[in-house]
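In the previous lecture we treated proteins in isolation. Real proteins rarely work alone, and many bind small molecules. This record shows how such a complex is specified: first the sequence, then the SMILES for magnesium ion.
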Amino acid sequence: MEEVYKIIDVSKIYNNDVHALDKINLTINKGEIVVVLGPSGSGKSTLLNVLSGIDNPSSGKVYFEGNQIDNLGLNDLTLYRRNNIGFIFQSYNLVSNLTVEENVLLGAYLSENPLKIKDVISIVGLQDQIEKYPYQLSGGQMQRVAIARALIKNPKVLFCDEPTGALDEKTGKRILEFLQSVNKKYNTTIIIVTHNPSIALMANTVIKMNSSHIESITHNKKVISAQDLRWS
Ligand SMILES: Nc1ncnc2c1ncn2[C@@H]1O[C@H](COP(=O)(O)OP(=O)(O)OP(=O)(O)O)[C@@H](O)[C@H]1O
Ligand SMILES: [Mg+2]
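The predicted 3D structure, ligand included, written as tokens:
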């Protein structure tokens, strides 16, 4: 199996005393769906930030497709992110003076192989909202804009930090079904952080984090289709 990420002894320390990650080791294979579970503050978002090049580790090594990325300069890091990564942020990060449609199109900008805006908008069910601005949307609608913006780029790796946190069961499952179909169609590696343990059933690999450590890594023999998940 082809390795997308390998991280060795990665630690992240904030302000000299907060150990957000403590000597983490991990390998992620191409085309996997990985679900990361763990209590609040256990280091899940920090792990995503380090893998996606949003943040540097304090120590340790991070490899993407065999190339070391923890030591890249700002320009190379930007290129790495631009060419490979889609990110759905826990806090949406929408641009407040752009409409829904413009926010989503931002994601397609500079992508070599973007999906069609119409398809992506209809998958997240925002056809009737495209002219609106973020302040006119509900939390769940903002989250769906953030998801559409990451998806339209059609990246090699898609990071999703609590992608269904603000969504009801029906909408949440529809988004997860779509993530699963993107994974099948494009062999996209998808890494999902969630507090919802039922989502772990649709993953190939489940990582449980606790107090800045990886507590366990499990590989599911059987993967459940998103539409058959029982919500909790
Ligand atoms: N930029 C930062 N500066 C200082 N401390 C930070 C920073 N980002 C995260 N931390 C701290 O690092 C630890 C891990 O945070 P992280 O955001 O990775 O947790 P999490 O598992 O994603 O939690 P949640 O489920 O609440 O999103 C926490 O103690 C947090 O306060
Ligand atoms: Mg988090």
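Summary for your notes: The first helix runs from residue 44 to 51. The chain has a mean pLDDT of 93.
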